[in-house]
Amino acid sequence: MLSVRDFWRRHRRKVFVTVGVLGSGYLLYKLYGAQRHGVQELERELAVQRETEDLMKAQMQAHFENIQKMSDVTLPHAMHELSCRITEELDLSHLLERLIQGKGQPNTLTQSEKLDLWSRLKF
Questions:
Q1: What is the mean predicted confidence (pLDDT) over 20-29?
Q2: What stretches pass through the bilayer (predicted)?
Q3: Could you tell me if 122 and 96 are in contact, meaning their C-beta atoms sit under 8 angstroms apart?
Q4: Beta-strand (E) ranges in the chain?
Q5: DSSP character string of 18-43
Q6: pLDDT tens digits, 96-115
Q7: CA distance 77 to 73
Q8: pTM for this entry
Q9: Which has fewest Cβ within 10 Å: 12, 38, 93, 98?
């Protein structure tokens, strides 16, 4: 009958190799599981970040469309008002009429009056 000591002496190297292979396999399995967990966590974070970016893009698009609608409504009215005000402020027809009268009737305007009308018209 074999004793434990004889068994150990005969199979010691095989036991060490077997324990080493099994331990290494277990360690690799745990490292792979940790790596897989890390990748899944990273994918989850990227999905959340992508959803956040999509939400921000949608909000920006809605804001742009809102501003576009407001400008489409108010800008033509404002441009019309501005055009009317500019026309009122820059009404030069009376200066032109006096210059045309002075040209048709040479003695109605003096040279200094003509120069004054031209300078006001240029301004």
A1: 97
A2: 15-32
A3: no
A4: none
A5: HHHHHHHHHHHHHHHHHHHHHHHHHH
A6: 777 777 777 766 777 788 78
A7: 7
A8: 0.47
A9: 93
